[in-house]
Amino acid sequence: PESLELSHLSLFGCRHLGGACVETLLKRSGGSLRELNLNGCVATELVTEQSLRTACPNLEKLDATGRARKF
């Protein structure tokens, strides 16, 4: 799959977006992400801090408030 060059991604309030979907997005665009908003993404419990750090090495700002699983 082709990578997506995203620097900012807001998934704010995507309550039904699952962790597998987020993991796929991060694999495709995580290398370029500088800001990620997962606020209110309560169904992303499979996304761990370690997977974020690995997929998004250039991440400068993360909003993960409102998630069921905290980092």
Written description of the protein model:
The protein has two helices and three strands, in the order E-H-E-H-E. With 71 residues, the protein is of the alpha/beta class. The protein has a three-stranded parallel β-sheet with strand order 1-2-3, with no helix packed on it. The protein starts with 7 loop residues before the first strand and ends in an 8-residue tail after the last strand. The mean pLDDT is 88.
What is this structure's SSE topology?
Blueprint: E1 8-10, H1 19-29, E2 35-37, H2 49-55, E3 61-63
Tag the structure with descriptive keywords.
globular, 3 strands, 71 residues, alpha/beta
Uncertain parts: none
- Main sheet properties: 3 strands, parallel
Question: What class do helices, strands and sheet pairing give?
Answer: alpha/beta
The H-and-E topology, N to C, reads as EHEHE
Strand ordering within the main sheet: 1-2-3
Number of helices: 2
Instruction: Give the % helix.
Output: 25-40%
Overview in brief:
The protein is 25% helix and 13% strand. The protein has helices at 19-29, 49-55; strands at residues 8-10, 35-37, 61-63.
